[in-house]
Amino acid sequence: MPSTTALPVLKPYVTPAQTKDNLDWAELEALDISLLKQPGGKQALANQVLNFINNNGFFYVKGHGLTDEQVNRQYAIAQAFFDLPLEEKEEYACNSAAGDFRGYKGRSTGDLAARDNDERYNIPKFTPEHERPHPQLINQHYEEIKEFSLHIHNKILLPLLRLFAYVLEIDEEYLVQVHRYEEKGLEYLRYMQYYPRSAEEDAKLGNLWSKGHTDYNTLTFLFYQPVAGLQVQQQDNTWKYVKSEPGAIIVNIADALEYLSGGFLKSTVHRVVRPPPDQADKPRLGLIYFARPEAAVKMKPVRSPLLERLGLQVPIDNLKALEGVTAEEWARARIAKDHRFRTGVVNQQETEILGGVHQKYYD
């Protein structure tokens, strides 16, 4: 809950410098959602979506209404959180074994360290179902974290969902009505930090910090983080770096939206690799928001005139397996499977997630 005590002075967040390496960057479209308020803006953005959506599921969002100062404040809070003593952070550990990522997840250690090189703190929606203890630091900044999270949901996520519904030629409120903030759901803001490893350690692991995967939510919003390492898989199965641009949010489409959109909006395959030499010794601090459907929403594709014309559909095996499965069940199953591998319960990442639906992993 919010703190009534005076706020401590946060150490200012200093944005890392961009790499000087000549990396192979992916070409991403930028959607300026401020155009939605202008005549003809919605159709112009819809045309952009139709032109780029089959290339890859990453894009930039601009005109989102958040200032650099607001974003850097969240980074400063994140930085202060990860500087807390480990024993204090562990008091707020999440129950990932039960598919619950709310709270703190530490790095794996010892023989399992290679599987998990990041720590996270996930702050869920500011609704009664998610009332829970937080570290004093989070409580002291509770209201500004809440304001930041609500802005992402109401002023960025919902306009994008209306735009996607417009592209699909369905009721523009269809996707919005399964992402109501006040309803039960596992949406959250994440503070995340990868830690640098020696060149020798990384080489043993193929220089992978996070193996190629898709997310299991609706949309993932990644705020400005210039330490390079994020890569997106191309249609020819090669990988290109995703450049973080000042003032822009990187957005990737995830599993739930792929299913809900009948396979039109495809979940993005991405990974994190060792940063280039001029950044490899720096921690990679991340600020991420995971939008997710309401807990009770069934993973059922929409009927759309666009899909009928294109002949698109979710693979029939997945349709049958996911029949009756809710967004919460899908998310919890993915989190629990991740926990089993990360903590050594199993020694290989499990591909079958739920009801015969398989998750692919990519090198």
TrEMBL record:
What is one process in the GO biological process aspect for this record? small molecule biosynthetic process
Read off the PROSITE patterns from this record.
FE2OG_OXY
What species is given as this protein's source?
Talaromyces rugulosus (Penicillium rugulosum)
Pfam families the record matches:
2OG-FeII_Oxy (PF03171), DIOX_N (PF14226)
Q: Which InterPro entries match?
A: DIOX_N, IPNS-like_FE2OG_OXY, IPNS-like_sf, Iron_ascorbate_oxido_reductase, Oxoglu/Fe-dep_dioxygenase_dom
The protein's GO terms of the molecular function aspect are: metal ion binding; oxidoreductase activity
Q: Which family does it belong to?
A: Belongs to the iron/ascorbate-dependent oxidoreductase family.
Question: What keywords tag this UniProt record?
Answer: Iron, Metal-binding, Oxidoreductase
Q: What PANTHER family does the record tag this protein with?
A: 2-OXOGLUTARATE (2OG) AND FE(II)-DEPENDENT OXYGENASE SUPERFAMILY PROTEIN-RELATED
Gene3D superfamilies in the cross-refs: B-lactam Antibiotic, Isopenicillin N Synthase, Chain
- UniProt superkingdom: Eukaryota
The residue ranges of the Fe2OG dioxygenase domain are 185-293
Task: Kindly provide the name given to this protein in its UniProt entry.
Answer: Fe2OG dioxygenase domain-containing protein
